[in-house]
Amino acid sequence: MTSYTTGKLLEQVKFPQDLRDKITEDELPQLCDELRDFIIDVVSKKGGHFGASLGVVELTVALHYVFNTPHDKLVWDVGHQAYGHKILTGRREVFHTNRIYKGISGFPKPSESEYDAFAVGHSSTSISAALGMAVASRNLKQERQHVAIIGDGSMTAGLAFEGLNHGGVENTNLLVVLNDNCMAIDPNVGALKEYLTDITTSHTYNKVKDEVWNLLGKVSKFGPNAQLIAQKIENGIKATLLKQSNLFESLNFRYFGPIDGHDVNHLVKVLNDLKEIPGPKILHCITEKGKGYKPAEDGDTTKWHAPGLFNKETGEIIKIIPKNPEPPKFQDVFGHTIVELAEKNDKIVGVTPAMPSGCSLNIMMKAMPDRAFDVGIAEQHAVTFSAGMAAQGLIPYCNIYSSFMQRAYDQVIHDVALQKLPVIFCLDRGGLVGADGATHHGAYDLAYFRCIPNMIVSAPMDEEELRNLMYTAQADNYGPFSIRYPRGNGSMVEWKTPFKKLKIGEGRRLKNGDDIAILSIGAIGIEATKAIEILSEQRVSVAHYDMRFVKPIDELLLHEVFAKFTKVVTLEDGCIQGGMGSAVLEFMADNNYHATVKRLGTPDKFIEHGTQEELYHECFYDVNAIVETVKSLARTSTNKAIA
After folding, report:
1. pTM over cut 0.85
2. Which residues are catalytic?
3. Is 600 within 8 Å of 620 (Cβ atoms)?
4. Domain limits for position 371
5. 143, 85: one domain
6. Contact 91/104 with Cβ under 8 angstroms?
7. How far is residue 241 CA from its own chain's centroid?
8. What is the pLDDT of residues 44-57, one digit of tens each?
9. Are 558 and 584 in contact (CB under 8 A)?
10. Are residue 517 and residue 469 in the same domain, yes or no?
């Protein structure tokens, strides 16, 4: 078993109570160094999210040192920043299993630890969740502190503002810690970023604010109202020097900061003071993503968000160079193809909510900066913003991860589909995504888009089909058009083929067969082709159909299938409730066909983390499972009832 660097202080801390009992304030900087070294050591060998957790090492230690966790509640936003938290809360010895199949989750998870107050994988939920907990504690007459730790990138989402707006009128012990590093995965964008930068860089404001606060806090003639008077004067200073009132205090939050988020001793002092101040408060901490690891500090911050394996001594990313050329990632095919299409059609624009590098829209942003938009972590806005452009004649390609699209479902229905606007939704990370686990699997989009009127729902099997679907979607005004594709590489090395316009709702027969038919949708169909090769060697004759579209579904093709076959397998990398297999069963019932249909897909449960291959196996739709399913059907009587 690989050993990992554990310093003498970190070795003493298994749980936060050990931190509070065994570590002195003078020793906290050394403990932070040891915790940072441990994260670097493990992540360099095992992979995972990196820069965000390094940036909050001091903040993590200070929070657990000051607050009585788990009685007091820490709610982390997203969870990329919570590795240090996991290590200090009983999981140091198993931290090397982070994001590995059957190991601990890469995100806070209450079923894993009582110190994980709330499950988080998507951004911007922390303030609302912590406020709910604070109100519950107040109503139940429980004395607790409630802390939401949120990054400035997550603060751009509407949900964060909704939580602040409500939190300002509730008299609760709520502290919002704003971890401000000017980064999400990519650099932050928008007016809020500019506002926080103004606060951070206004040396005049900060110097005067500190001097006035300290002076008036000590002047006894003001009596018990000294701090209240100081606060009023301070607000005037803010309005004068920043040329605007403080955003957070306008929402009735007491604002403190900005302070150095890497000075652990000062953080402890400030947090202890804030514990004694009632009502909603916000502490603005300035941090650096990747702090304490020079290659991450000096290099590409986006790359060091989750760099994979690397040499911790040199910072060199470890890459396995394949002997033969590899197919590209689906996201890169999207990125290059949208530029090709936009060069031919000046109405095409691209939109993404804070994921330009994750979805490869950064390729278009570089080539056509006035036609590609990063709107920040704001999926709802991304959809309605796209709808607004479509209403005025543009053709937006709105690229959102499948799991993140769940956050904008009403906007898809109300702002796009209801008006039949030509917004093209490119859903990256469709299907099981791997190590990010249950919060990030794109398991539901085929089902939740299939039930929306006016919506075309499609999924390419390979890179060529992705290009053709993207080309087809902009060729005519079809209204809302969804194209979903998986995380990772495709299957075609020579993928840049000439564009071909597809017929909406038309699938294709890939292979003839006599015994059983497999109907697949999307890139998981490649697994079916591999299974069919194995089955052909075992003299099982299998026909393969790539459906391409779930809605409208190819009824002519389905008539062909059910007229010939009494045994059918449907295959999709998504939930089987309401997905493509359900659509096939509905067609069969509506048209009075009788066949045995076996649906393969994600079962009705949340799937945890692991490699895609491990999860396909667990959900019983990897190559071997497809082979076993077909062989089992082949052994049964053709007189079996509908599955």
Report:
1. yes
2. 289, 379, 407
3. yes
4. 330-484
5. yes
6. yes
7. 37
8. 988 888 888 899 99
9. yes
10. no
